[in-house]
Design brief:
Strand content: 35-45%
CATH class of the largest domain: Mainly Beta
CATH topology of the largest domain: Ctag/Cox11 (Pfam 04442)
Number of domains: 2
Order of helices and strands: HEEHEEEEE
Shape: elongated
Helix content: 10-25%
Distance between the termini: 81 Å
Number of helices: 2
Low-confidence stretches: 18-30
Mean pLDDT: 85
């Protein structure tokens, strides 16, 4: 092989690799899903930071951009603001668009521990985006955290 033939082969290989990288980037980037979660709480306060300065009910949760087949975790801090010990429950509602709830699941690592009065419990919310999600580019939903005494 002459030098010019080797140079052409290297350039062609580099061009093909660059196109593959761009194609992969396009698939990952353009399939990302924008999102926002609204927090509603009863008998407790939900915070986004351990210093209890960012009220999740006011700010909401920004899940960032999500990709199909991924799970995203967010730590929240739940404070018992009632005058009795509480057990917590988690629910979701108001998914927009409605079909979003068919492609995602929200769960948490709360294990049923009783929250004493004033106690703050770090808790991880986990949003699972199913790999078969289609037709959804942005979504929102309400996260209900309820303290039962």
């Amino acid at each position: 092989m002459s030098v010019s033939t080797k140079t052409r082969a290297i350039l062609l290989t580099a061009a093909v690799l660059a196109l593959l990288v761009l194609a992969l980037f396009g698939v990952v980037f353009f399939n990302r899903i924008g999102s926002h979660g609204i927090i509603k709480s009863v008998n407790c306060q939900v915070w986004l930071d351990s210093a209890l300065t960012q009220n999740a009910s006011v700010i909401g949760i920004d899940w960032g951009f999500l990709s199909p087949g991924t799970e995203t975790n967010k730590t929240i801090y739940i404070q018992n603001t009632s005058n009795v010990p509480l057990n917590l429950t988690l629910a979701t509602e108001n998914w927009l668009p409605n079909a979003t709830s068919n492609y995602m699941n929200l769960f948490w690592n709360y294990n049923g521990t009783l929250l004493t009065v004033g106690q703050v419990l770090p808790t991880i919310l986990m949003l699972d985006v199913y790999s078969n999600i289609t037709g959804i580019t942005n979504f929102s939903f309400t996260i209900d955290i309820i303290g039962n005494g």
